[in-house]
Design goal:
The protein has 167 residues and is mainly α. It has seven helices and no strands.
Length: 167
């Protein structure tokens, strides 16, 4: 599966991010209002670190889907074709980090079930753009702090479960 993003695919992803951030920006910028988009965006980003499983597969599918759609839209609007851009990566998950990503997926799934139609669209857009844009060197570099946070949370969780380092 191709995990490179085209320029047109990244433009489509950036457009989806814009469409989600603009109403927030115009409505008072309450950080709580970013959760339906931002939480799944981060989950989509860390799903690019999954070497397999459903999250890794969905991250690869997001790039393929966003590229095809973006290339079609940009070509239809401008007559130009999309070219691949520099690939980026967040790295790999530790087993402990994988547990944190699993728990975040459970939390997002629970939030999805309770969300209304508008928030479900925001959540889907967040996960899609997080997974696709993180495949670019620029966004992967901007999120370079994320793997150590996820893996560190997992290590802390493991230590707590094993009873080490609590007291």
């Amino acid at each position: 599966m191709n995990t490179e993003l085209t320029l047109a695919g990244s433009a489509l992803s950036a457009g989806i991010v814009y469409l989600n951030l603009r109403p927030w920006w115009k409505s008072g910028r309450n950080p709580k209002d970013l959760i339906p988009f931002g939480g799944p965006f981060l989950l989509g980003s860390v799903s690019t670190m999954c070497t397999g499983g459903i999250l890794g597969w969905l991250a690869g599918c997001s790039a393929t889907g966003i590229n095809k759609t973006g290339d079609t839209l940009v070509h239809g609007a401008t007559g130009t074709n999309g070219a691949a851009i520099t690939h980026g990566s967040l790295g790999a998950l530790t087993p402990e980090g994988g547990v944190v990503v699993f728990l975040a997926t459970v939390a997002c799934g629970t939030a999805w079930k309770a969300a209304g139609k508008a928030d479900k669209r925001r959540m889907a857009g967040g996960a899609l753009t997080g997974a696709s844009l993180t495949l670019t060197a620029g966004v992967a570099n901007a999120l370079s702090w994320l793997p150590s946070v996820v893996n560190g949370l997992g290590s802390g969780l493991r230590s707590g479960m094993e009873g080490t380092g609590i007291l």
